[in-house]
Amino acid sequence: MKEVAIIGIGMTKWGELWEKSIRDLKTEAALKCLDDAGVDKVDAITVGAMSGGLFNGQEHLASIVADYLGQRFIPSTRVESACASGGLAVKTAYMEIASGLSECVLAVGVEKMTDVDGGEATFALASAADQDFEAFHGITFPGLYAMMAMAHMDKYGTTLEQLAQPSVKNHYNGSMNSHAQFPFKVSLEQVMNSTTVADPLRLLHCSPITDGSAAVLLAPVEVAKKMNKPYAVILGIGHSTDTIALCQRKSLCQLPAVEEAAQRALKMAGKTIKDIDFAEVHDCFTIAEIMVMEALGVVEPGQGGPACMDGLTALDGKFPINPSGGLKSKGHPVGATGVAQIYETVSQLRGEAGDRQIKNARLGLTQNMGGSGASSITHILEARS
Amino acid sequence: MKEVAIIGIGMTKWGELWEKSIRDLKTEAALKCLDDAGVDKVDAITVGAMSGGLFNGQEHLASIVADYLGQRFIPSTRVESACASGGLAVKTAYMEIASGLSECVLAVGVEKMTDVDGGEATFALASAADQDFEAFHGITFPGLYAMMAMAHMDKYGTTLEQLAQPSVKNHYNGSMNSHAQFPFKVSLEQVMNSTTVADPLRLLHCSPITDGSAAVLLAPVEVAKKMNKPYAVILGIGHSTDTIALCQRKSLCQLPAVEEAAQRALKMAGKTIKDIDFAEVHDCFTIAEIMVMEALGVVEPGQGGPACMDGLTALDGKFPINPSGGLKSKGHPVGATGVAQIYETVSQLRGEAGDRQIKNARLGLTQNMGGSGASSITHILEARS
Questions:
Q1: What ranges make up the beta strands (E) of A31-186?
Q2: DSSP letters along A82-112, please?
Q3: Is residue B332 among the annotated active site residues?
Q4: What pLDDT score does B80 carry?
Q5: pTM for the full model?
Q6: How remote is the C-alpha of B196 from its chain's centroid?
Q7: A311 touches chain B (CB under 8 A)
Q8: B243:A51 CB<8 A
């Protein structure tokens, strides 16, 4: 199989960016990425976006990226897997290269979520759940994850303090990330006393509504070797799906698609989770980070909560998680999130993460999730120079 | 490069199917396809759909297909390129195989368009155009293609009779297609006297709003060889993009992305357009079929209209186009159209097209277009047995 490298990364500031359109955002991230790689022409583009239709009245997003980069007539593909659309864009870019169809491929993730009002945004996000059997009846994503949190607390004794801790950690990490939407620290008390959204989840357990974009450039490793600077190689890719409706799962407090995707990626990479130095994971709600830790095998089922309190996943812990600040602090423009996970991982592997730099970061894992775990995509990246 | 075959095909009846949900449609087409191939387990799925969000309040469509086929946990990817989403699903399935990630991959195209009212459907379809610079200001697709038709008539002298003829031919072909939404013949007079939609386009120049799904199964050619029945091999794939806004093109009566995609596919196949026996093309409006003929190089620019009157593209002509009945008669569930083009082409290559069978059909071409030509995907398929 062809070895594919990531030779460039770029992203916009994330936040409530009323002065920038979806077109502006993805073009800015893409241009920053091409600048980083020192490349001005690509052979193909992939675009991850969840719902250009519901957020922006704009589908057909892939053609716009090619056009506004001045690269009309190249192949450009938009992919969607709800909040895992960004990870899917990177996987699809890999396939463009590994299939032999293209050589140098740009993967862009984007979402412009603040041009609609809160109710419309909630409706758009709920289209990642089962419309007929979930969303139509009124449940929204905070409600779905609240049920998962309740089940986890009931089965494993996970506490409210444990549920709050990933937010504290991720805001601490994000306070050092200039791209983050909310680059400030929060205390355990602030998280636990914030407004209730869907019991037991409070405002500071939840990732925000965000505008933003991120881009990464993929090329065969032979191209990367000629660049005379550090790069990352994609060692493994895993992609898996599950029932879209939470009620059709065997358990509310397991994420089998996350486990399957991780196992596929680790197998392809020839690694185990013990080999991994750090991970960027999908903390759309703090309970998600806890359940993902368990699904990845970082800790045993039920041990995610206690492990958060032990500092296992802190920047200086044994298995740092979300050095970028995660979805919680950095923000969650849904289609961009999976690409930004790759951005952070490559930054860490190149030793360019500044105050957030993890020591001896050689092997990183990303985990990008759609809906309440109905899809998951994992990449494993290795540092090379 | 790995040689990939199409080893199974399936589709639903197309039409105004109020008793079937989007979930029902794609599952039915997928099951028919698996039955046709005699396969009950696939390694991955791709789904082409334009706007599950705006038509159905349902994104995350790929997970649903895997789940309802009883194949949870496999990778499943939704792609979108407006009305070219189906062709893109087939291309992406090819990449899953050629990249080495998967072996047997199901490509499903679907759109369920009649659950919203006419205005909402028009808004959803207009999201394939430039929202900021076209749709927001009120133009819809009949208007965009009407401008293209006017420009073509002005530049080349294309007549109203010529503009009507593809509809007559496609309805004749579709009258023999049991899957078609409108399986009946129309006369030149009926087309020319039908209600004006956007001058010069009349109702019978326009493809309809349709519910429907189609699916095809891809596998390495070694798998196909063991099946002891005729199959088709993908010789070439071409994918190209252009400005999303029609007003930013150099000419209103050319489709350079269609030309580029076809040239890429022909080059990959090692063929010229003269080698091709027949084609399924994107006749969303009759002017589109005329302009596509010119872009593919079937006739010189400006000669599309006269060629329609000469019978060049009739079932028994030298270069049959749209033996299925095309989008005009068969219907146009936008995400399904590109997959159904492959369905028809494989049917023809297997010699199973019944009354519509083209004699000596060995090499077929499909051309699936997004928007007013902002994306195009071409496949070239060869008969094998």
A1: 44-48, 76-80, 105-112
A2: TBTHHHHHHHHHHHHHHTTS-SSEEEEEEEE
A3: yes
A4: 98
A5: 0.98
A6: 25
A7: no
A8: no
Which residues neighbour B189 within 8 Å (Cβ) at sequence distance 6 or greater? none
A-facing residues of B in 60-89 (CB < 8 A) are 60-64, 66-67, 72-82, 88
Whole-complex ipTM: 0.97
| Cβ under 8 Å to A: B residues 358-377 | 370-371, 374-375
In chain B, the N- to C-terminal Cα span, in Å, equals: 21
Mean residue pLDDT of chain A comes to 97
Please report, as a single letter, which amino acid is at residue A188: L
Distance CA B331, CA A122 (A): 33
User: DSSP letter at A129?
Assistant: S
**How many residues appear in chain B?**
385
The string of pLDDT tens digits covering residues B56-100 is 999 999 999 999 999 999 999 999 999 999 999 999 999 999 999
Please report which confidence band the pLDDT of residue A284 belongs to, taking 50, 70 and 90 as the band edges. very high
Q: Does A248 lie at the interface with B, CB-CB under 8 angstroms?
A: yes
Beta bridge mates, A366: A280, A379
Above 80 in pLDDT, residue A1?
no
Which positions ≥6 away from B352 have C-beta within 8 Å?
A: none
Say yes or no for a CB contact (<8 Å) between B77 and A56: no
**Residue in A75, A92, A130 closest to B241 by CB:** A75
CB B128 within 8 A of CB B49: no
Q: Using an 8 Å Cβ cutoff, are A254 and A297 in contact? A: no
| Single-letter code of the amino acid located at A195 | T
